[in-house]
Structure formats: C-alpha cells, structure tokens
Amino acid sequence: MAFSMYANKEPVKVRRRTISRASSRRSQVNSSQSKQSKQAERGQSSCSDSEDDARTRDSDAQGVDINDEKAWDTDLENEDESHPSYDHSGRTAYIQACKKLGVVPVSYFLRHMHDQELNMKHHGLGATGMQAISGVMMGNTKILTLDLSDNWLGMEGGLAVCEMLRENCFITTLTLNDNRLNHCAKELCQTMLMNSSLQRVTLAGNGFDDKAAVHFAEFLLTCHLEYLNLSHNDLGEAAGLLLGPAISENSTLKELDLSWNQLRRKGAMAIGIGVKTNVKMKKINLSWNGFGLEGAIGIADALKGNSVLEEIDISNNRIMTEGAVLIGKGLSANETLKVLKMGKNPMQSAGCWGICAAILRNPNCALQELDFENITVNRDFDEIYKQVQEQIPDLKLRHGGTEIPLKPRPPVDPMNKLMAYVDKHNLRIVDFFNKFDKDGSMSVSYDEFKQGLQDMGISLTEEEVHAMLTELDRDGDGEINYSELVIGHADFQEKSREPKVSVSLFRPMTS
C-alpha cells in the first residue's frame, strides 16, 4: 500500500553543487548503509522511511549528503587564500607612514607607544618625523602624558601636533618646549581650546613674542587648563598689557609660569593688577623679568587684594629697597600667601628687614617659606628675624649669609697730627718744642703740653693725648723734655719708612 502511494511520484531532484572530498563521500555512504540495515532489522516500513530511502539512494548516486552543511562548498570560499589580521597597535601604520614620508622610524616610539607616559625629548624628529607620529597618535588611547621637547618641530611640525590634538582626546599633559612654535601660536591656541582633555601645557622656549601674546590673551579668557608654562620666551611690555586683563578674567588656571621673559614697566604693573582680581590661581612664577619699582607696586597691590594666591616668585626682578618696602606693605594685609621668593634682587639687607617688619605687623600672616637667596643680611636683620620666629616658629628662611663685621680701623698714631703741624708750618723740632716751653727750662709738664696743643689748634682726644704722653715720657717722671721729643720724632720717622705689606698676601686662597 505504501508503494502504491509513491509509485507515480517523480524522483526527488537534488541541486548539484561542487562535490566534496572523496573521504567525505565514503563516510556518508557508509553512514547511509548502516542506517538502512538498522531499519531493516527493526522492520520499519513507514511512508517516511521509504521517502528517506529514496532520497538517500539519489544522494548516494551523486556523492553528496544534502543534510550535511559541512559537505557543501561555495564559490565565495577559497581555502588557499590567506587574510592577514589588522594591526591594532598602530606599529605597522607608523612604519608605513615613515616609508611614505622618507624618514627613519624611531624605535623608542615603537617600544613605548602604548605607555601612559611617552617621553620623546631630544629625538630630532623635525616636521616630517612629527607628521609620521601624528597620524598614529590620532587614534592612540593609551598615552596620557606626552613630552616632545627639543625636536625642532617648527611651524609644520607644530601644525601636525595641532592636527593630532583635534582627534586625540586622551592626552592630559603636553610639553612642547624648545620647538620654534612662534609662527603657529594662533593655531596652537585654537586647538587647545577645542581639546577639552588637556589640563597641563608647557610651551617654554618657543620664541613667543608680543604678537603671539595676542592669541594667548584670547586663549586665557576661555581656556580650561589648570597649568600653563610660557617661560623662557620673548614676552615684553606689550605682552604684559595684553596678558594682565586676561589673567584677571581667567577662572581655571591654578598655576601660571611667566618667568624668564621681558615683562617690565607698565606691562609688569598690568600683570600685578591681573593677579589681584584672579579668583582661582594658587601659584605664579614671575622670576627673571624686569619688574623694577613699577612692577613692585603692582605686586604690592596684588598681595593686598588677592585672597587666593599661595605662592609667588619674583626673584631677580631688579627690585630695590624701596620696592621691597612697598611689597612689604601689601604683605602686611595678606592672609593666604604661604611662599614668597624674592632672592637675587638688589634690595640689600634693608629690603629684607622691611619684609620682616611687615610680617610683624600682620598677626594673621600665613607665610611658611621666605626666600632671600643671594642677599647678604646684617645684624639688624638677624635681630628682627628673631622676633618673626617668635610669631611664626615654623617659618623657613633662606638668605645669602650674614655680613662679616668689619674690623675696627687701627687707631691713628697721634704723632701723625703733630708732625703734620710741623710740616705744614715748616718748623724745626726745637721751634716746635719752644711753643710748649714758655719758661725755657727745656722741660714741660703734662698740663703745659696739653695747653700747648690747644693753643696750636691740634685736636686730640683724651685717649690720644694720654697715649702720646705715655710714649714720649720715656723716663716716667711726669714731664717731657726736649731730648725725649727728639727721640720720639726719630722713632716715628723710622716707622714711617718701613714698607707696608698688604694683609691680603697672607690670606689663604679660596675657590
């Protein structure tokens, strides 16, 4: 009955595809025969079994098992073709970029391109080498601190750095010292504004001048940095006039370094006014500029009005004693400053004394460190500083040492004054003695000798008169006779003829 149901039915059609390997066919045929033998033993003769047998016989004829997907080959597969995996590290891309640009790959970069901190100082990259690195750094997510100091990048290299920073949002600390970036100051400032991940940027020694200060002033108005270093550049008085108002408006910078520039006069005063109204900055370095008296006035005003600043460095700024006294007045009203550095200024010990006097006038002074490096102080300063220590016991002081007290001058021999009178009036010794010996006894008492000195207008102190009388009265009888005066005069002339040897000849040489 089952056979009659499928007697007139057409054979099952099988789609022909690429035939699999011979080993697969043999295994499939053996599997089919084993299945049929098991069904025959069990006596299974249902309609579904007949259909399966027909399909199996047809597939065996073709050598393909249509139920086994692993036995099928497609036109899209090519077992002989190998597909190289993509290099996610970026090393291959960097090497290919170096080949394209014609530069030698930097092995140090290849070894450390996945470190959190990459130090590429002094590698001589140049503009082309920076372009090769820039392309790879765009997609780098590992490096957080990047130092490219002293690589002679120039304008083209600086633009490559800007291009990289527009895409890389992981770098937080960037150092670009000594790279001649003056001509790309505008692009650099615009890029730093776009990159919100940067927090600390150092741009020392790049030749930024008053023209570049225009772009940095605009940048400071809306920047998000916490630290900016523009030291060792060429920022002058005009730059100070631009940067001062920008510093006043900035609300993110915690630390600013403008040391080793040419900020002076009105520019220095503008910087001081900007610091006065800043509400965020904790530390500012203004050392090695030319502030002078005008800059000192600005700093004094800043210390008087600022209630946030904790450290200021105004070392080597041509600040004289007058300027130091003015800064002291500002310090006497400040309650937040912890570190004051004023070393290498020509304010002398008097200027240091003025600062200490201001501290004594401020009971709420918060100073912890006071630096007067290379300034020699005297005993007056030591005395007032002892009072400061009583007020602030933990205050640390640094100065250039205490002045060595000058040795008292050796007393002048009173015989010099006597002989000077004799030479001036062209007198003989006997004529000179006769001015004392009124009675012609050829001997004078102490009182007669003193009176004669007064009559001749020879001014001697009591100590000098006593020393002279003691020296002339050789026999100690209380009187001076003519012979004793002659002997004393001869001894004085002999001493005068002795050669004078400089004391410095006997001092040991020191380095």
TrEMBL record:
<feature type="region of interest" description="Disordered">
    <location>
        <begin position="1"/>
        <end position="88"/>
    </location>
</feature>
<dbReference type="InterPro" id="IPR032675">
    <property type="entry name" value="LRR_dom_sf"/>
</dbReference>
<dbReference type="Pfam" id="PF13516">
    <property type="entry name" value="LRR_6"/>
</dbReference>
<feature type="domain" description="EF-hand">
    <location>
        <begin position="460"/>
        <end position="495"/>
    </location>
</feature>
<dbReference type="InterPro" id="IPR018247">
    <property type="entry name" value="EF_Hand_1_Ca_BS"/>
</dbReference>
<dbReference type="InterPro" id="IPR011992">
    <property type="entry name" value="EF-hand-dom_pair"/>
</dbReference>
<dbReference type="InterPro" id="IPR001611">
    <property type="entry name" value="Leu-rich_rpt"/>
</dbReference>
<dbReference type="InterPro" id="IPR052394">
    <property type="entry name" value="LRR-containing"/>
</dbReference>
<protein>
    <recommendedName>
        <fullName>EF-hand domain-containing protein</fullName>
    </recommendedName>
</protein>
<keyword id="KW-0677">Repeat</keyword>
<feature type="compositionally biased region" description="Low complexity">
    <location>
        <begin position="20"/>
        <end position="37"/>
    </location>
</feature>
<dbReference type="Pfam" id="PF13499">
    <property type="entry name" value="EF-hand_7"/>
</dbReference>
<keyword id="KW-0106">Calcium</keyword>
<dbReference type="InterPro" id="IPR002048">
    <property type="entry name" value="EF_hand_dom"/>
</dbReference>
<feature type="domain" description="EF-hand">
    <location>
        <begin position="424"/>
        <end position="459"/>
    </location>
</feature>
